[in-house]
Amino acid sequence: MRLDGQGGRLRRDMSKGDAAKPGLTTGKERVWSEEEKNILGSPNESFRKLLGGTEDNTEGAGRRGKAIARKGDTLETLDHVGDNWRSEDRLSQPMNHHLTVGLCAGEQTSPRSTCEAERCRDGPEPLCVGSLSNVTISVAPQYGTGQKMGLSSRPRCSAQDLWTIDSGIGGLKLTVTPPETDVVPKSGDHPRESLLSRRGPPFLLNSDTHSYAIPRLIVTQDVSPKRCVPSSLSPQFNDTGFCLDVPLSGEVESPCSDSGCGGSPVPSLFLRKLSSSSGLSSASSFEESEDDFIGSDLEPAGGLMVCSSDEHGASSTSWRKLKNMVHWSPFVVSFKKHYPWVQLAGHAGNFKAGEYGKILKKFCQCEQQCLEWLNRDSLRPFVPGYYGVVEKEGEAYNQMEDLLSEFDSPSIMDCKMGVRTYLEEELVKAREKPKLRKDMYEKMIAVDPDAPTEEENRQGAVLKPRYMQWRETLSSTATFGFRIEGIKRADGTCDTNFKKTKHREQVMGALEDFVDGNKNILRNYLTRLKELRIELEKSEFFKQHEVVGSSLLFVHDSSELAKVWMIDFGKTVRLPNKQTLNHRAPWVEGNREDGYLWGLDNLINIFSDMVQD
Ligand SMILES: Nc1ncnc2c1ncn2[C@@H]1O[C@H](COP(=O)(O)OP(=O)(O)OP(=O)(O)O)[C@@H](O)[C@H]1O
Ligand SMILES: O=P(O)(O)O[C@@H]1[C@H](O)[C@H](O)[C@@H](OP(=O)(O)O)[C@H](OP(=O)(O)O)[C@H]1O
């Protein structure tokens, strides 16, 4: 259930300390919705933004309520009495932490017992839960850097304190959930779906109207993500196929998999225009307006898909993106520059254009938590900057750095890393609840009509792990621990026909073509890959995560600037019980090794050979 200001809720007026008194007025509790992100308070508080709260509309009681608001870098709880909101407490919100808010209001006959039953006690910010559900607000990283969070004016969460506040709104208490919680949703949950439809995103930034976060209030019963336990079962899937009598399905759930879109990589390009900035304008001139986009959602990605390529080769494009450029010397001069945004691989419909230099990728909790962590990890220079979650047209997106923005007519390559492309938990799920995939069968026979077993031909479908394993062995994933997913050359042509690029010579040929024989670019890539390896070997994040389906994005341009970043953390999951991986050991189901570093070693070897040749 989401608090959206629509539904009123009967509640007992606990005012004047007389909580248990029968016959108290009942009224409607109102919760501020996203649309009610008013600027509150007096003029000198005009930067305060309401994040969420409750209002007691008890008849005769006047308007009373409590809310959480943001002002500058601090969060505040606000008391609302009569027509005015006043600031009550200031909270320093730790970066990247989620706030859990307990609304102590509702039909409460025994506040004391509720208070005791829940974790209302002295100590660091009790989670104060009344008869209403918890509310989760998440806060964007830019919210502030304080380490401790204060509480409302009632630091001791006694029953008396709780239920005698103001007009009877039981209190609005905050607690911090550390970010180091496990990120894997409980088995059976599709994280993206569960987040968006079951309990809503933990926080949404409204990209259209604000340059900073305006979280929504979301009611949730369960604020801590669940983890799937690795299977102790031995592998049952192999290349010989699956002979299970199972229903056909368009989807096998997996973290952040977007099966609904079919799963086919669809190169697409955003065609967009950024608002022009004028001469000596300030930072605001960098902000783009959605209205400035050329065209709108003509294809599922939300941008314009003007380039596509298929299994059979390249296609050229007529795309372009306009970007504001500001030169700071000797004068600030702005002009528009054309550069492309291309989605080389991945699920169609996953991306939208974001603010200046940023892109939006469909929200995925795994990815969000990884990006948050990675942005604080030693791997920071090798991942896109992360800018929180934004909402656009009713959907949640992770906002991240557009890695193409610093390049001129970039050449791009996506390499999927690791020896396997499915999580161990996907195997477990597929065993427990096998679902046949007709779409995957069709993709399979399009590449190799002889690949399916007789059984699979009869069924006209395959299981996802079977398809994934077939893709791995057909390409260089199984033999080298990486595979090329797609290449976009400087001339705009795209190629995603690498499903059968398996052998070293084939890989080298593709790389040679990608850099157009330019040894300097190869050398620059090699340097960057080696730097990445050093950081990966040091990284705490990397040690503690099973990294599956993640890619390295290679980008260079004619200036010979050549960079590599890690992208796609939709299937990167934290290991339980302080387990760590070395990312080079062979995978045996249960050990969760992913072969990422082994793949990187091989990639580095290939680049080294090519540089020397
Ligand atoms: N931060 C970024 N900057 C620029 N381009 C990006 C960025 N992230 C992704 N892309 C582009 O989008 C493509 C797909 O990205 P990504 O792998 O994250 O998507 P996905 O839909 O999760 O993929 P998959 O289906 O493999 O899980 C990349 O190949 C790249 O072309
Ligand atoms: O590249 P192909 O041959 O099109 O195959 C897809 C690819 O393996 C994706 O990585 C995978 O998504 P995940 O990595 O998110 O599982 C997708 O599964 P899906 O269709 O279930 O989304 C596959 O269909």
Automatic annotation (TrEMBL):
Entry's EC annotation: 2.7.-.-
Domain of life according to the entry: Eukaryota
GO molecular function: ATP binding; inositol hexakisphosphate kinase activity; inositol-1,4,5-trisphosphate 3-kinase activity
One cellular-component annotation, GO: nucleus
Comp. bias regions, Basic and acidic residues: 10-19, 27-38, 187-196
Catalysis performed (reactions): 1D-myo-inositol 1,4,5-trisphosphate + ATP = 1D-myo-inositol 1,3,4,5-tetrakisphosphate + ADP + H(+)
UniProt-listed Pfam families: IPK
The protein's enzyme class: transferase
Keywords: ATP-binding, Kinase, Nucleotide-binding, Transferase
Stretches for region Disordered: 1-71, 179-201
Gene3D superfamilies listed in its UniProt record: Inositol polyphosphate kinase
SUPFAM superfamilies noted in UniProt: SAICAR synthase-like
GO BP annotations, alphabetical order: inositol phosphate biosynthetic process; phosphatidylinositol phosphate biosynthetic process
InterPro entries registered for this protein in UniProt: IPK, IPK_sf
Record family assignment: Belongs to the inositol phosphokinase (IPK) family.
Name of the featured protein: Kinase
